[in-house]
Amino acid sequence: MLALARRLHEAGVLGINRRNADYILVHNQRRLYPLVDDKALTKQIAMEKGIAVPALYGMVEIQAQVATIPEIIAGHDDFVLKPAQGSQGQGIVVVTGRSKGY
Predict the structure, then answer these.
(1) 81 Cβ partners below 8 Å, 6+ apart?
(2) Is 13 helix (H, G, I), strand (E, B) or coil?
(3) Which of 2, 40, 51, 77 is most buried (most C-beta within 10 Å)?
(4) How many other CB atoms are found less than 10 A from the CB of residue 77?
(5) Please, are residues 58 and 70 in contact by the beta-carbon 8 Å criterion?
(6) pLDDT tens string 1-39
(7) Bridge-partner residues for 58, per DSSP?
(8) What angle do CA 21, 22, 24 make, to 5 degrees?
């Protein structure tokens, strides 16, 4: 595994830790992190600034709303489920196509 990491580094691939240390932490004020740690808030801010963002079909904010997911995704065969707070893509589910009847 170490050999692979070394080869990637030599090829110019930037690892997530180096990216965070050299770019994210250096160029962003810590007090603003809460604005981007919440994906829903980030989306709202981007839209207010005229930045194109993917369509939002709906949000589930509390456990009781999980039952509304079939209604939210009705008519959409391709969609992404994202946690409001996540890191490095963890928790993201990409759906491309659906089985008949679902």
Answers:
(1) 92, 93, 95
(2) coil
(3) 40
(4) 9
(5) no
(6) 789 888 988 998 888 888 888 888 888 888 988 887 788
(7) none
(8) 70
